[in-house]
Amino acid sequence: MIFEKRRRQQIREDLEAVVKNVFEKQNQKQTTLQAKQEAHFDESMEKSQKMIRRLSDTVEDFLDTYQEENEALCQVQKQIEDIKRQEQKLLGLIGLYQEHIELVEEWIAEHMPAGSEGAQEAWRQQHQILKEKLAAEGRFCMIDSIGMPGEVVDYRLHEVIEAIDADKEEQGGKVAKIFRQGMIYQGNVIKKARVQAYKKG
Question: Which is it for the CA torsion 33, 35, 38, 44, positive or negative?
Fold first, then answer.
């Protein structure tokens, strides 16, 4: 009986030792697995933080570049606006020269004294040469004059100041006389020609 008790006690102790051993091994495995998971988590966190830092640097670089390019673009736009203003002033100046040349032409035709046909012809020739040179230079600058007697009236190009009766049927709707030439620059009408036109029959 005492022997039986001892034997049971021994079996219980052995069983407890086995169970304890199993639990310790299981605990060690869990601790090792948890340590690996923590290490993996720490490594992932470190990688994520590095990636975030790189992304942050990239965004910062992009914003700096964008700001620089935006400032450069604003500067270019300002320069373009300045050039356009200067261009408009130059076109205005060319228009004044054009009107002055037309006035000189009228003066030559109307105010040269009688008996000075030779001088008048010389003036006309010089004036014609100057007009042709100005027209040629204007074409190089994409400036064209508007308004020639005999051309069909186009209200996009002509401002009809006076309408007169036509002598012939084919004259109807055509320019009779130019009061002031117009100007086209780069395909845009800057100034319409002021004209006298024949009425349509």
Answer: negative
Phi, psi of 161 (to 5 degrees): -90, -35
| Apex 66 CA angle, 63 and 67, nearest 5 | 85
In single-letter form, the type of residue at position 194 comes to R
Encoded amino acid at 150, one letter: G
The three-point CA angle 186-154-90 to 5° equals: 30
Whole-prediction pTM:
0.50
Write the CB contacts of 134 (distance below 8 Å, at least 6 apart in sequence).
97, 98, 101
Q: What is the pLDDT of residue 141?
A: 79
Assigned token pair, 73: 């673009």
Which string of b and e fits 159-189 if b means at least 16 CB within 10 Å? bbeeeeebeeeebeebbbebebbbbbbeeee
Please give the pLDDT value at position 47. 87
- Name the DSSP class of 4: H
Phi, psi of 131 (to 5 degrees): -60, -45
Mean pLDDT over 158-177 rounds to 92
Look at residues 97, 91, 195 and name the one whose alpha carbon lies nearest to residue 153: 195
pLDDT at 41 over 80: yes
Contact 182, 153 (CB under 8 A): no
